[in-house]
Amino acid sequence: MAAHPVSPLAPKSYPELPAISGVRFATAEAGIKYKNRTDVLLMAFDEGTTVAGVLTRSKCSSAAVELCRENLVGGVARGLVVNSGNSNAFTGMKGRESVRYITRVAAEALGCAPSEVFIAQTGVIGELIDASKFDGVLDETATRMNTLPWIEPAKAIMTTDTFPKLSGAVLEIDGVEVRINGIAKGSGMIAPDMATMLSFVVTDMPIAAPVLQALLARHNQTSFNSITVDSDTSTSDTLLAFATGQARVEPIQSLEDPRAEIFGQALSDVLFELAIHVVRDGEGATKQVSVHVEGATSDESAFRIAKAIADSPLVKTAIAGEDANWGRVVMAVGKAGEPADRDRLSIRFGDLTVARNGERAAGYDEAATSAYMKGEELELTVSLGLGEGKATVYTCDLTHGYITINGDYRS
Amino acid sequence: MAAHPVSPLAPKSYPELPAISGVRFATAEAGIKYKNRTDVLLMAFDEGTTVAGVLTRSKCSSAAVELCRENLVGGVARGLVVNSGNSNAFTGMKGRESVRYITRVAAEALGCAPSEVFIAQTGVIGELIDASKFDGVLDETATRMNTLPWIEPAKAIMTTDTFPKLSGAVLEIDGVEVRINGIAKGSGMIAPDMATMLSFVVTDMPIAAPVLQALLARHNQTSFNSITVDSDTSTSDTLLAFATGQARVEPIQSLEDPRAEIFGQALSDVLFELAIHVVRDGEGATKQVSVHVEGATSDESAFRIAKAIADSPLVKTAIAGEDANWGRVVMAVGKAGEPADRDRLSIRFGDLTVARNGERAAGYDEAATSAYMKGEELELTVSLGLGEGKATVYTCDLTHGYITINGDYRS
């Protein structure tokens, strides 16, 4: 994949995430697809680490996803191995054997059981990975493990990403400082209704696997499941959360524990920030767009309408052209197939109402709207006037950059 | 809308459709959006003309669509008025009044009842049309009605289309020649699951309105409802069929009449050719792609998978790049949410099998596949190996041209 210019929406700086007790990591060059490029991440977790995960709902999920699904049942983790360059997806029985082989090599390097090792792979689909490339590499990597800096694993998992994605939260629980660090990768093949891309979150909070799983699934809904770049969903989407449990507080054993709510909110913040980073690194993106739908008959209905708007190529190209083309928004509302009454429908860009009750708004200010559309972060709100349902989906615009990245093989 | 280069997939010539007894037409310049541009089509049907229609399922359908829905109940037609430049969609109560006004003006010009006049409008959404622009214009147009040439109405209804779309069939029923002529417009905001764009078909076959309606709905499924350019669906999609009944044969009164099948097949051919013209004029299209799905658990399931593939921006950009990227096809199969077993899945481009039983096919010929992808008309076949269900969806590639047409307002 050729190098592409860094997204204009990239952050100006990256957070220096703190070490988290109970996790160490190192990266390596295994030459999976390219030479002289970091393409492997190995993480080691101390004994007692619980794990939760949300995986792609694709009917053609990758071998790595299937293995994670299997190992999540145990609820404990000692290792994570991630590679870029080859997703090993759609590689049949041989693909399944290869991920088993790689996790066995990792388990030996880390001194744990293969069922305690998780794996994620990203890159080309349909080519069997050469599992022997991990021979020796993981052993050697395991001798160099460290707790810092977190930008290193964030960089190691990048593919078409133009910037590394990190987010962290520090919160106090029972007077003790608890940490949550997260990294993510993804910029194309990104759509809601799935776990979307790769993301790994580590905390030192002691928390039972089923509680972590419940919180992760809940907050995934409003973060990774609420973004779309191109409506396409990967076969390898993986979100894993690891809790080393080394913070010296009583473990959270149940969702009824009031601390679950507090911890969940911090987890949610980290997931949300990572998800927004993914949108802002959307292939070819020049604008970040929040699509709010309110007044729908239910939250689910609002979500489907927001997704129809955020997925619409015509809406996204209009935004690229800085055109407040609310006619295309109406079109997308109409095609969602959800209850909508044209004559109650209102549309705002930012605070500027462009349509009210099914007609161009009286006092619509074209100059102000045009000025607003030049911004880098846009808010688009559709009020249906039918009920209390609401939802937000986050997306980016659709530009020549997307076509260049995904279609210009001949150039 | 700026003029765009004619699609490279435009036909080399246009059919010279014959006159159809019982229908006359003329076009006019009403200055609806631009000066000096034909933007109105008026058609007049002789007494005894039956009518059927398939209209957008958009929840925000236009005023013209709503009026057609109302008038279709009567089953008879004397007039059709079509304008480009303004779709009059999302214009509330005033929009409804304006289409009533326009059909009244048309009815006076043609000497019939307003309930016998059908209307279709295409162009910008959300701006109330100035109905007074039709005053005098339709009266005058009605004095110039003719039976030929059919390319004239085909041109009058174009918007971002780069070529006019016509198709005709002549068949023999009971030893008598029966004619079917069709025209269509559309190149963006095109997706299945709706009637899609504007299309008008006229025949001299005497056929009862309910029978015509049943045949139109059935054959719309495998033509206009099986194409997609950009997955976006218009608020104004309209397909109307008019039967003047002037061919000297006994009328078809029931679907049980064996001639219904014969007539339906010819109608189907006309609808299909028009639908393919729309795909070939897809905004920015450089390739026409037929996506076949076979071996699905049902035809409906096959259709949803084919549509997921045909709608996928990643598949469409890969095709633009002449890359037989079957990994992206697998991704699209996976995201459709329909039953699919990776290990039974096979994928062919043309006759070239690239993947078989969940893996790259033994004997995959990269050079031959690359050569095939340079073609202008491509066939992509996915075999699921699960059942007997099959479907085909027709689409085009996704290129810089699409972005330029829909997003480059600033240029």
Provide the fold topology:
Two copies of one chain form a homodimer.
Chain A: E1 23-28, E2 40-45, E3 50-55, H1 63-72, E4 79-83, H2 92-110, E5 117-121, H3 137-142, H4 151-156, E6 165-173, E7 176-185, E8 198-203, H5 209-221, E9 227-228, E10 238-243, H6 258-280, E11 288-296, H7 299-311, H8 313-320, H9 326-335, E12 346-349, E13 352-356, E14 359-360, H10 366-373, E15 377-383, E16 389-396, H11 400-407
Parallel strand pairs in A: 4-5, 8-10, 9-16, 11-15
Antiparallel strand pairs in A: 1-2, 2-4, 3-10, 6-7, 7-8, 11-16, 12-13, 12-15, 13-14
InterPro entries (chains A, B): Arg_biosynth_ArgJ, ArgJ-like_dom_sf, ArgJ_beta_C
Site (Cleavage) (chains A, B): 195-196
Keywords (chains A, B): Acyltransferase, Amino-acid biosynthesis, Arginine biosynthesis, Autocatalytic cleavage, Cytoplasm, Multifunctional enzyme, Transferase
Structural descriptors:
homodimer; about 400 residues; alpha+beta; L-amino peptidase D-ALA esterase/amidase; Ubiquitin-like (UB roll); 2 domains; seven-stranded mixed beta sheet; five-stranded mixed beta sheet; about 25% strand; transferase (chains A, B); Arginine biosynthesis bifunctional protein ArgJ (chains A, B); multifunctional enzyme (chains A, B)
* Count of alpha and pi helical runs of chain A: 11
Over the alpha carbons, how many angstroms does the gyration radius of chain A reach?
22 Å
Strand % of chain A is 15-25%
Shape summary of chain A:
globular
Strands in their spatial order, largest beta sheet of chain A: 9-16-11-15-12-13-14
Q: What is the chains' assembly state?
A: homodimer
Largest interface: A-B, 73 and 72 residues
Q: What number of domains of chain A?
A: 2
CATH top level assignment of the largest domain in chain A:
Alpha Beta
Question: What is the third-level CATH name, the topology of the largest domain in chain A?
Answer: L-amino peptidase D-ALA esterase/amidase
Helical content of chain A (DSSP H or I, runs of 4+): 25-40%
Compressed to H and E, one letter per element, the order of chain A equals EEEHEHEHHEEEHEEHEHHHEEEHEEH
Mean pLDDT of chain A: 88
Count of strand segments of chain A: 16
Largest sheet of chain A: 7 strands, mixed
Helix/strand-derived class of chain A? alpha+beta
InterPro entries (chains A, B): Arg_biosynth_ArgJ, ArgJ-like_dom_sf, ArgJ_beta_C
Site (Involved in the stabilization of negative charge on the oxyanion by the formation of the oxyanion hole) (chains A, B): 122-123
Pfam families (chains A, B): ArgJ
Subcellular location (chains A, B): Cytoplasm
